Amino acid sequence: MYVKKEALLSSQIEGTQASLEGVLEFEADIKPKENINDLKEVINYIKALNYGIERLNELPMCLRLIKEIHKILLEGTRGANRNPGEFRTRQNYIAPQGALINEATFVPPPPNMVIPAMEELEKFFYGNNIPPLVKIALIHAQFETIHPFLDGNGRMGRLLTTFYLFWIKILSKPLLYLSYYLKKNRIEYYDLLMKVRTDGAWEDWIKFFLKGVSETSEGAANTARDIIRLKEDLRVKLYDKAPSISAIKLLDLLFNNPMISIKEVSERLNMSTVAANSLIKVFADLGILREATGRKRYKRYIFSSFVEIMAEGTKMGEI
User: Fold this and answer.
1) Alpha-carbon radius of gyration of the chain
2) What is the extent of the structural domain holding 301?
3) Do 140 and 190 share a domain, yes or no?
4) In the predicted model, is pLDDT for residue 98 greater than 90?
5) Do 211 and 292 fall into the same domain?
């Protein structure tokens, strides 16, 4: 769920309109109420993050890994025709939609400089005595300045933060959703990156980045505490209203699978469909589960209170 949250927030920075519940519905094959292309971009981010974490067991941080992850990030989305997984061979620029290069707010290095610049960045991943959080702040800013791909550079740059901290074992799991802070401070984020490029304002950028790590870490810890408290409260409720081993097992299952069907409960808890249906009805009557499809058959239920905790900061207009 933390991965889904980071994917959603990072995509929202780029203008994607999607919700955490919409992502869960899409994954559960429920017809989405939201833009399918936006949801695909979030799902690809989730796939890219999960793939990268697994791949780091086989590969170190390197350009090969970055290109593999970028290919997954853009596959089958609006950027699919912009050379996914390949460094750019033509000039790109950042500007309002429809604007020409001479109206750009930022023009990255020319194509012939992309590979040499990325090779230098790859070397910087290794060695030196720079504190790791300062180092990833520098890496992120430099990656965004090189802008090595035709599309997806913002999302890829934010993914790099998670991968680097996981690779050097500062994170044991991808629980640092820094995109929440960057979304909340979107204007300052872009302004400071630009000031690094134009004025060499590295200190201001590093302070901003470190403040984000601090705030996000505290927020992640608070979210974890809220989840633990919710679990304890619901256990007490179940012991009082529906005491059974199966009920506790289903509760545990919901924290891993907050969108679930009767068939899945039956299979995962090794019980009959009838028993699974009865158990879900108990959870629905207690307000723990809510039916999410509106169907008469093939219903799916959502663990609303848990999703609400995880969705903080992801709702459109919330920040």
Assistant:
1) 22
2) 223-310
3) yes
4) no
5) no
